[in-house]
């Protein structure tokens, strides 16, 4: 089995259990939200639905078969599904824009 090309990003706004800057992988897209597999504050991998505005630094990342999350990351970032133009659209919708921090 070959490497997986996935979309990675970072959390821009803290939420319960997830710190700012945490590494996340896009698992599913729906409207203005994304289901992400993210590293929790305790170090476990968890899945959360987050708005695009709570995510930043979208990029393609190559996941080797030896990665602990290889079988749990949906290949939505594979070249046949997403292009660099699609990644630019995600980045424009994300990057922590439109947020009021308290």
List keywords for this structure.
mainly beta, SH3 type barrels, 1 helix, disordered C terminus
Describe this structure in words.
By secondary structure, the protein is mainly beta. It has a single domain, classed as SH3 type barrels (Roll). 10% of the residues lie in helices and 38% in strands. The chain has a five-stranded antiparallel β-sheet with strand order 4-3-2-1-5, covered by helices on one side.
Q: Would you list the SSEs in sequence order as H and E?
A: EEEEEH
Determine the mean pLDDT. 77
**Helical content, roughly?**
under 10%
How many helices? The count is 1
What ranges have pLDDT less than 50 throughout 5 or more consecutive residues? Answer: 98-102
Number of domains: 1
Strand content of the residues, in percent?
A: 35-45%
Spatially, the strands of the biggest sheet line up as: 4-3-2-1-5
Radius of gyration: 13 Å
Summarize the structure.
By secondary structure, the protein is mainly beta. The chain has one helix at residues 84-93; strands at residues 4-11, 23-30, 33-39, 45-51, 55-63.
Question: Secondary-structure blueprint of this entry?
Answer:
Layout: E1 4-11, E2 23-30, E3 33-39, E4 45-51, E5 55-63, H1 84-93
Antiparallel strand pairs: 1-2, 1-5, 2-3, 3-4
């Amino acid at each position: 089995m070959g490497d997986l090309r996935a979309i990675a990003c970072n959390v821009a706004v803290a939420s319960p259990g997830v710190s700012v800057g945490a590494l996340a992988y896009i698992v599913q897209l729906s409207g203005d939200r994304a289901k992400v597999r993210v590293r929790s504050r305790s170090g476990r991998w968890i899945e959360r639905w987050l708005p695009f505005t709570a995510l930043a630094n979208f990029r393609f990342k190559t996941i080797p078969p030896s990665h602990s999350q290889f079988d749990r990351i949906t290949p939505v970032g594979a070249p046949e599904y997403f292009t660099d133009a699609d990644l630019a659209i995600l980045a424009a919708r994300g990057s922590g824009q439109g947020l009021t921090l308290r």
